[in-house]
Amino acid sequence: MRKYVVTFIVAVLIVGGAIFAWDRNRTPAAEGEVVQKTPALAQQNSSQGQQKGSSDINGASSAKNNSSSTASTGAKTASGAPTNSSKTSGKTDFVNTYDVEHVVANPESMQVLVNKTYRLPAGYIPPDLVYPNVPFTFSEKIEKRKMRRDAAVALEKLFAGAKKDGVSLAGVSGYRSESRQITLYNNYVKRDGVKAADTYSARPGHSEHQTGLTIDVSGSTGKCAAESCFAGTKEAKWLDKHAHEYGFIIRYPEGKDSITGYKYEPWHLRFVGTKIAAEVKSRSITLEQYFGNAVPVSK
């Protein structure tokens, strides 16, 4: 009997020691886990509606929002713009909503992405606004006649190219300050309500016009300026065919409102440079699809 008791005690000690050693050497599941924030402009699984993909990247350091960390989604060029490795196929839907907001890290970049998710720093004013030497639908030298220097030079070439093809263009609205956007947006909300206003007007800080890289154009007569009827004009058709040759894209193309967040605007030109413009045009994608999730954001 004593023999069996001793054997039992030894067995208990061996098993207990093994369990103790295993417990000391294992790493708890909670330790070492990294919980990343939901991407601001995340790829969507169309069948399940679940977010997936990587988080945003910061142009200078790791971006943080609400104390959550982000991870890099691809290499960037020296200017802070993502390289080709971060681009999407152009077939993906995106989250583009005011419910998730980030401040862009490179507001002065010619490739800056500004939409409902990504906004400019409060009170941002472009550093090199000039008056492009092109006709406008008005004669006053006011704010909305301005554009950033590189965009203005490109616009002059675009207007000249159109004229050679027998198409006369006129500027309607270029740069727009944040204070001006506040007034415009609030007026639209009073007239049509927030839901409707958000389909055609940007909230303050989220307007591409504030970058100084965007301009609305029309024919020289101003007929159908910033109106849906502009789509059927020879001016709109020329812009759709040739704008990319001068570094501009139709920023809110037809059938892409679920991605851009805005209705079709054939008059809304955005300067991005000839390289990006050519690819956006050839692939029939939006700027959101071109950059994918790799958008530099600030803290």
UniProtKB/TrEMBL annotation:
**Polar residues composition bias: which ranges?**
82-92
D-alanyl-D-alanine carboxypeptidase-like core domain: residues covered? 145-273
Q: Which SUPFAM superfamilies match?
A: Hedgehog/DD-peptidase (SSF55166)
Q: Where is the composition biased (Low complexity)?
A: 43-81
Gene3D superfamilies, sorted: 3.30.1380.10
Q: Point out the coiled-coil segments of this chain.
A: none
**Annotated stretches, region: Disordered:** 41-92
Query: Which CDD domains does the entry link to?
Result: LD-carboxypeptidase
Q: Please give the PANTHER family that the UniProt record associates with this protein.
A: D-ALANYL-D-ALANINE CARBOXYPEPTIDASE, PEPTIDOGLYCAN L-ALANYL-D-GLUTAMATE ENDOPEPTIDASE CWLK
Protein name as annotated: M15 family metallopeptidase
Q: Which organism is it from?
A: Paenibacillus chibensis
